[in-house]
Structure formats: structure tokens, C-alpha cells
Amino acid sequence: MTDPYRTLGPGYAGRRRPDPRVAAIIDEALGEARSVVNVGAGTGSYEPTDRRVLAVEPSPVMIAQRPPGSAPVVRAVAEHLPLPDGSFDAALAVLTVHHWTDPARGLAELRRVARRQVVLTWDQSVVSRFWLVADYLPEIAEAERSLPTCDYIAQQLGPAEVRPLPVPHDCTDGFLAAYWNRPYAYLDPAVRASISSLAKLDPDRVEQAMRRLAADLDSGRWQERHGRPDEPGSADVGYRLVTSLAP
Ligand SMILES: C[S@@+](CC[C@H](N)C(=O)[O-])C[C@H]1O[C@@H](n2cnc3c(N)ncnc32)[C@H](O)[C@@H]1O
Fold first, then answer.
1. Quick one: 37 exposed, middle or buried, by C-beta within 10 A (0-12, 13-18, 19+)?
2. 94 ligand 1 Cβ < 6 A
3. How far is the CA of 97 from the centre of ligand 1 (A)?
């Protein structure tokens, strides 16, 4: 099993800290579930502390960054969950489905092991209009064209609701569009290193795009198009919570 998180993973826990506002939305979507299996659990972000949790994660680099005292973890992939049918009230999968080699199989596994499924993902058609992608790195949209869409994920989960997850201006979880009004953050290679959509691109191409972003920020061109950096607020930059509607 190749592990992209061997290179992406170091430093993940520091730069991808769970955001409390995102956590509250996920927690609400988990409803009354008393037991939760967190698939593609990474370093343990968004794992509830007041429910029984089992984490499933394939990458040893990510497992090694789970904080002491976090939920027990099994090393496995979504496509083959080593768990009995219906053994959990809910299955959670946060920003991981796009990494799965067989999303249909993984989503079927979530349904098999849990009555309720909660998946955090993104709508590529919205993310492709996000300024970093549209104006600087359109190859991200190109590379993500074949990823499972929100509608596909919802279909696989049976009746499911898809709803936008707004991202606060000071979101602590540094995913791709988290810095939507903190453009200077993308100039930092360490920030980019924990964002898989950026880390997978040709580094020379990313450097070139970041030089253009820095120049646009210096000249005020970025501000003319997108407003004042660091203005507070929240934005719909494409993140979506897909929650099954079955009991
Ligand atoms: C962007 S991280 C998200 C981690 C965590 N859920 C979070 O919100 O911080 C994606 C995770 O998916 C895991 N992953 C990759 N392929 C997987 C698979 N086939 N099944 C389950 N997890 C997988 C990676 O190892 C990584 O930990």
C-alpha cells in the first residue's frame, strides 16, 4: 500500500488543527449516535470525545501524530473495514473520500458497518471558482475532475442531504480553501505542504503561481478583485456535508 501521507503527513497535526465551528456542525450531523467509526481518521480531527469512537486510518505517519489519549485506531482502508455489519451507530469520513482508490466500495463499507453516515467533502464546481484555483492554479480543478462528486457520494449513501459548510475567516484547519481571505498564507511552503491538492502539483508550477500571487498582493491587484485580506466573516468556498437520511 503506497502512503502519500509519508510526505504529506509530517507536520499535519500542527497545520490542520480541527476548527471548533466545523466540529460543532459535524457533531450535530452525527445526531444521537453513541458510537462512531471515523474512517480516514488521520490525526484524529473531529473525533467526538463524548461518544465511543474507533478510528480507522491506513497511514502510520498520521497514526503516529494522534494525540495521547485519543480514540483507539485500527490500521485499515475504507474499502475493507475490518468490522462487523452494523457495529456502529454512525460512520464519519472527513476530507478523505477523494483519497480512496475505490470510493464506491468505501462508501458501501460505511453503510455496511453503520446505520448513519456523515461525509465531509467538497463540490468541485464551487472550488474551481475559488480565486486560488481560478486565477492561479487551474490545474487543481483539472486534476480533481475525476473525483467523486457530492451528488455521487449522496447517491451511494442512499437518501442523503448535501449542505454547505461555511468556512470561517480564521479557520484553524488549513485545508485548500481555508485561507480564502488570508492570501499571504499560501505563500508559506509549510502551509502548502499540508494541503494535498497543492502538494501533488509540480513544485515549479506552484512556485511560479505563488510569485504571481505575491506580486498581485504587492501591487494591490488581488485586493482590487477580492477585497481586504483578513476581513472577518465566513464564506461558502465549496465544502459540503453529506449526511445520510436513513435512521
Ligand atoms: C486530508 S486527510 C484527513 C484526515 C482527517 N479525517 C482530518 O479531517 O484531518 C486524508 C486521510 O485519508 C487517509 N486515507 C487515504 N486513503 C485512504 C483509504 N483508502 N481509506 C481510508 N483512509 C484513507 C489518509 O491517510 C489521510 O489520513
1. buried
2. yes
3. 8
The CATH number that applies at residue 191 is 3.40.50.150
pLDDT at 11: 73
Phi, psi of 118 (to 5 degrees): -130, 120
User: Distance (Å, rounded) from C-alpha 53 to C-alpha 35?
Assistant: 6
Domain count, the chain: 1
Q: What is the pLDDT of residue 58?
A: 97
pTM: 0.95
Whose CA is closest to atom 10 on ligand 1? 96
Mean pLDDT by runs of 10 across the 247 residues of the chain is: 68 86 97 98 96 97 93 98 98 97 98 98 96 97 94 96 97 96 96 92 97 98 95 96 87
The rounded radius of gyration (Å) of the Cα atoms in the chain is 18
User: Which pLDDT does position 88 carry in this prediction?
Assistant: 98
**Residue 108 and residue 135 in contact, taking contact as beta carbons nearer than 8 Å:** no
Nine cell digits for residue 93: 469520513
Q: Which amino acid is at 210?
A: M
Mutate to test the pocket of ligand 1, among 92, 97, 99 (most ligand atoms within 8 A of CB): 99
Q: Give the closest residue (by CA) to ligand 1 atom 9.
A: 45
pLDDT at 229: 94
Collect all residues with Cβ–Cβ distance below 8 Å to 231 and sequence separation of at least 6. 169, 181
According to DSSP, residue 14 is labeled H
Ligand 1 site, residue 118, Cβ cutoff 6 A: no
The CB of 15 under 6 Å from ligand 1? The reply is no
